[in-house]
Design brief:
With 168 residues, the chain is an alpha+beta fold. It contains 6 helices and 12 strands. It has one domain.
Length: 168
């Protein structure tokens, strides 16, 4: 966690000169996501936290809101039922997305420099991120009841039902 915090502070320091021109009162913020800095529209006053327009969400993170959830390429995260208002808000003709709450849901670290209006969102935890990047199950080989070995990769492209059992 210290490394991520140091990385966040280093990234924010590198962008301090740029972000000074993007003061909070200008209606713009700087968002650092996937180590890329993107200038985004600051949320209206009633919305607290890191709310971004859906256009800025896609431009800064490549995520977009779809019926199945918040998606980026093949990766989709459904929004928790009954909590849509915590993630999506409409103000006039603009739809806002709570990227701060979304990062919290994905267990991504978030850092904010209020003076310079700079947000940093760190990577998803690697244990979760590794299999989510490809949506492939981890490779493993196990014996069947006749001790014949089978690898999950042998069944690629086919539907597989795994049944497990333990004696304890």
């Amino acid at each position: 966690m210290r490394f991520i915090t140091r990385l966040a502070l280093a990234s924010m320091t590198c962008l301090a000169a740029v972000s000074l021109a993007v003061a909070a009162d200008s209606g713009r913020s700087m968002l650092i996501y996937d180590n890329a800095a993107t200038e985004v529209t600051a949320a209206p006053q009633p919305l607290k936290g890191l709310w971004v327009t859906t256009a800025d969400l896609k431009r800064a993170t490549r995520f977009e809101i779809k019926p199945q959830g918040v998606c980026r390429d093949e990766l989709c995260f459904p929004l928790p039922k009954g909590r849509k208002d915590e993630f999506v808000s409409k103000a006039g003709s603009t739809t806002w997305f709570n990227l701060g709450e979304f990062a919290k849901m994905l267990k991504q670290p978030v850092a904010y420099d209020e003076r310079n209006s700079v947000w940093f969102i760190g990577p998803m935890p690697s244990a979760q991120n590794e299999h989510l990047q490809t949506l492939d199950a981890p490779s493993f080989t196990l014996p069947d009841m006749n001790r014949k070995m089978h690898s999950l990769s042998d069944f690629r492209g086919k539907k597989v039902m795994l049944i497990t059992w333990a004696s304890w």
